[in-house]
Description:
With 160 residues, the protein is mainly alpha-helical. It is built from five helices and two strands. The protein has helices at residues 2-27, 42-50, 82-93, 98-107, 133-145, and strands at residues 60-61, 64-65.
Amino acid sequence: MNFLKIAIFTIMIIALFVYVSEVLTKISGQAVVTVAVEGVNPEAGEAIFWGKGKCHTCHSIGGQGSAIRCPNLGEGSQGPIMAIRAEERAKEQGLKSGTEYLIESLSEPGAYVVEGFKNEMPLVYKPPILLQPDEIKAVISYLQSLGGEVDIGAIKLPEV
């Protein structure tokens, strides 16, 4: 009988933690986008950024999202809007383009940690995020669209 009480109590505690983590994720940034957009395009990338990718739990774009843990990807204290900033950082790092910087920033987040922030971004193609290659490309196209030109053909992901 005691074992059953302990098991029920344990399940209730786990359920409470799961519930609280989901609530915190939803209130830590913009509400999750529920519109499903298909394909590799900025619209799909935006839906993934604010939804499945949960990028908004750490990043913000301008005044939307939560940039407490990671850089604001909009114009602000970390510099100009993301596409322009990516081009500038690519030149600083000896990369060919801002798109290459964005790809490396997502596939190897520790490669370019912004000063003042910790190296804590998870790999987007592994749990807990677990994005598929086309979803990663869509997010990159969305980031390209933030102050720059979208070039989906330039998005060549490394083998993972």
